[in-house]
Design brief:
This protein is an alpha/beta fold. The protein folds into two domains: about 210 residues, P-loop containing nucleotide triphosphate hydrolases (Rossmann fold); about 60 residues, Alpha-Beta Plaits (2-Layer Sandwich), CATH 3.30.70. It contains eleven helices and 13 strands. A six-stranded mixed sheet has the order 5-6-7-3-8-9, with helices on both faces. Strands 11-12-10-13 form a four-stranded antiparallel sheet, with helices on both faces. It has a three-stranded antiparallel sheet with strand order 2-1-4, with helices on one face. Bound molecules: adenosine-5'-triphosphate (ATP) and magnesium ion (MG). Magnesium ion (MG) binds next to helix 1.
Amino acid sequence: MSDPHADAAVEIVDLRVSYGTQTAVDGLSLTVRAGTITALLGPNGAGKTTTIEVCEGFRRAGSGRVRVWGLDPQRDGPLLRSRVGVMLQDGGIYSGARAVPMLRHMSRFYAHPLDVADLAGRLGLDTVRATYRRMSGGEKQRLALACAIVGRPDLVFLDEPSAGMDPQTRLAAWALVEQLRTDGATVVLTTHLMDEAERLADDVAIMDRGRLVAHGTVGELCGSGESLVFRAEPGLDLAALRALLPAGSTADEVAPGRYLVAAGTAGLHAVSSWAASVGVEPRDLSTRRRTLEDVFLDLTGRELRT
Ligand SMILES: Nc1ncnc2c1ncn2[C@@H]1O[C@H](COP(=O)(O)OP(=O)(O)OP(=O)(O)O)[C@@H](O)[C@H]1O
Ligand SMILES: [Mg+2]
């Protein structure tokens, strides 16, 4: 009999984790498809790091079930270690380590490591001479990313991989992550960056306050149509505007004083006539594709950026 979850790299079912009285993860269920990049997106404190630490076997689940390649990350840690790469949010690298020697050292633990010189070059680590303790924030991030992937893992957890990286390094990091997927690996990363999630992720899981608030491809979450956004005084009655819009459109105040109209090209006309008739002056009126930020705003009423 075929296993319906055979293509799942990670399966999380009703995960709960608390720190004392504080609930960090509150009934999260999520499946990561093998061979894809999944981004966990959410504001500070959403529970992203806690969730992946449980998957990495570094933290115990309060309740619920977590399986990585069908194994229990707590019980089967030794079996998973050589297959799973980990980049922690706060480094976790020996403070006296230097970049290239550290990578060479690590690569020896694996049967089929990446080429160290090539990896170091792609991340600009070949010219970094400082010990980890004295590296800049971006250099530390680059080394942590390199350490996570040097063993050619078939699953890699990256906790805010591009935090603190300059734009050029970020592009190099993204290219490496995409290369991992091309080579068949599964990637789970956390991020606050919408463009990072939109560029890299096959699936996006949006978390807020320990819960999953949305999960799907960027296309599924954002839709294909254009949206209209504008600012105006908070609390406007939108009933008259909605009456002018085509069926299936929406008009909402997604945050105080911030309005979003999803109505395709008809939206602009409708908003102009409505605004003139009720004496509202829309500010910063623009059309754009719906973003993950809009999705988060719609679902939670708050901005994703904190
Ligand atoms: N060891 C701990 N003791 C107590 N509370 C903790 C501990 N670790 C995390 N928390 C709390 O659990 C919640 C979730 O934290 P977590 O680090 O998982 O969030 P996050 O989504 O990774 O946030 P960020 O985007 O800031 O990295 C937060 O409110 C945090 O303060
Ligand atoms: Mg975190």
